[in-house]
Specification:
Layout (H helix, E strand, L loop, with lengths): L33 E5 L5 H12 L3 E6 L2 E6 L20 H5 L15 E3 L2 H25 L8
Helix pairs in contact: 1-3
Bound molecules: iron/sulfur cluster (2 copies).
The site of one iron/sulfur cluster (SF4) has 9 residues, from loops.
């Protein structure tokens, strides 16, 4: 007999009944990482620092509407096995102000850019830093800006 195994269907936020909380149906997505805005990297040294962060593991970078963010993928130590907060009454302010209204429960959006490995950052740095040099040379030579072939 062949048994077809299908992934469980995600509960839809529009199916919430009055008085229900969406977090009840979630695996604590927002408690499993934190992200901080950083200055836009512009130099080899900046990118090298980013590489170093990533070499420690569970660190990624993303760009959202022009702002760069460092993201650390690590579960909050107070997240309980049933995905509820273990210190709900005394949870930090940042957790209190975060609401389910626009949370990532069913967020399918993509970042403008997302870097998951140090190699990706290195490759990107090579591209943008050398692109600046090539563009300058190209303008100096011909007076015309030419796009690089990647
Ligand atoms: S706020 Fe959203 S992402 Fe966070 S636990 Fe609740 S439903 Fe999940
Ligand atoms: S303190 Fe509670 S609500 Fe805040 S991140 Fe940790 S588990 Fe989530």
């Amino acid at each position: 007999m062949i048994v077809e195994v299908r992934p469980p269907r995600q509960f839809k936020r529009e199916d919430l009944k009055p008085g229900e909380n969406l977090c009840t149906y979630c695996t604590g997505t927002c408690c499993r990482y934190f992200a901080l805005p950083i200055e836009t990297p512009t130099t080899r040294k900046d990118f090298d620092h980013m590489r170093w962060y990533m070499l420690h593991g569970r660190v990624s970078f993303f760009v959202d509407q022009g702002t760069w963010f460092l993201m650390v993928h690590n579960d909050c130590r107070e997240l309980m096995p049933d995905n509820r907060c273990g210190i709900y009454q005394t949870r930090p302010q940042i957790c209190r102000t975060y609401t389910t209204d626009n949370c990532e429960y069913d967020d399918k959006t993509c970042y403008d850019q997302f870097f998951e490995t140090p190699e990706q950052i290195e490759e990107y740095a090579d591209l943008v830093l050398n692109w600046g040099k090539k563009k300058k040379k190209s303008v100096e030579k011909s007076g015309v800006v030419s796009l690089p072939v990647v």
